[in-house]
Design brief:
It is a single chain. The protein is α/β, with parallel strands linked by helices. It has 13 helices and ten strands. The strands form three sheets. It has a five-stranded parallel sheet. A three-stranded mixed sheet has the order 1-9-10. It starts with a strand and ends in a 5-residue tail after the last helix.
């Protein structure tokens, strides 16, 4: 690991703090994701991208588009969960003038904007059943009518969809159509959460810093100890949470190196990162003896931390490296107040 990771502001102005459209990662889980992207990109199959909120599902979709024969055509994202149900039909398919109150002019929908390109339907699991029926028809017939029109519009658009929800559970609950699920789930890609790929954290930090787009951010550095603390966190908000943290620290510590003590409380190490405990020299044995239990606890903590790093943050992998049961390691993680 590098001693420090640095941000040099490029001076470009953009909407958010992020790196390139290629997802970064060297852990087995992310290598699998990248391999699947490269396999499916040249084919016009529908792709369903699965993963928790903040894992980078749109970045995966953009990378699929960039590697596809449609790369020169538009990539059009739609967040199905952010648009009210009554407006989503018009957003996707467009409308004619006077089709409803407030429709003062005709409007082209996202399907037409994405003609010959890629339409990314984010949070597809939040789409109403009524809209699911209409989307299914478009996927089957590759045609639709604008709201308020009888004229059929034919489209040649690739569909990528994403959700953080368990769609199979939603089908059982009657909240998602099974036929639409199988139309979308031709080629599934599951993105691992950040807590399962902590070995990628230094690379992600470096990429996010190098891709900073916020005006006014000054050069920023992370010390090795600060990065090690971040690698002990649980990251419920995944890469998005990491991105927000880096932006916040860039504001608080311009042109400085962020130390472990500078991190917000929730990101600080539960216990200081310790160097290996020196072996006691019998010739210099302390007069009052030594605390064997404390000494062994320090050695144990260090080995657990190293095993977690080696296992990319996975508890099961670290347990195998330490030759112990996963449940035993979980108890020790709780004892030392380490995130897992």
């Amino acid at each position: 690991m590098q001693d420090a990771i640095t941000l040099m502001n490029s001076g470009n102005v953009g909407p958010e703090l992020r790196g390139s459209s290629r997802p970064d990662g060297e852990t087995p889980g992310m290598r699998k994701v990248l391999r699947l992207i490269e396999q499916v990109a040249p084919v016009d199959s529908n792709v369903l991208i699965l993963g928790e909120s903040g894992t980078g599902k749109e970045m995966v979709a953009r990378y699929i588009h960039e590697l596809s024969p449609r790369a020169a055509r538009p990539f059009v994202p739609v967040n199905c969960g952010a648009i009210p149900t009554e407006l989503l039909e018009s957003e996707l398919f467009g409308h004619e003038k006077g089709a409803f109150t407030g429709a003062l002019t005709a409007r082209v929908g996202r399907f037409e904007f994405a003609q010959s390109g890629t339409l990314f339907l984010d949070e597809i699991g939040d789409m109403s059943l009524q809209m699911q029926v209409k989307l299914l028809r478009v996927l089957q017939e590759r045609s639709f009518e604008r709201v308020g029109s009888n004229r059929t519009v034919h489209v040649n658009t690739r569909i990528l969809a994403a959700t953080h929800r368990d769609l199979e559970a939603a089908i059982k609950a009657g909240a998602f159509r099974e036929d639409l699920y199988y139309r979308l789930n031709v080629f599934p890609i599951q993105i691992p959460p950040l807590r399962e790929r902590l070995g990628d954290l230094p690379l992600l930090i470096e990429d996010l810093l190098a891709g900073a787009r916020k005006p006014g951010l000054s050069p920023l550095r992370f010390s090795r100890e600060a990065v090690e603390c971040l690698m002990q966190c649980h990251w419920p908000g995944n890469v998005r949470e990491l991105s927000n943290l880096i932006e916040r620290l860039g504001i608080l510590f311009p042109k400085q190196e962020v130390e472990a003590r500078d991190l917000p409380d929730r990101y600080r190490c539960p216990q200081p990162v310790r160097e290996a405990a020196p072996e006691p020299d019998p010739a210099q044995w302390p007069e009052g003896g030594m605390d064997l239990k404390g000494h062994m606890s320090g050695v144990e903590l260090q080995l657990i931390q190293k095993a977690l790093v080696q296992a990319d943050g996975t508890v099961a992998g670290a347990a195998r490296l330490l030759h112990m049961r996963r449940t035993t390691l979980v108890e020790k993680l709780r004892k030392y107040r380490l995130s897992y």
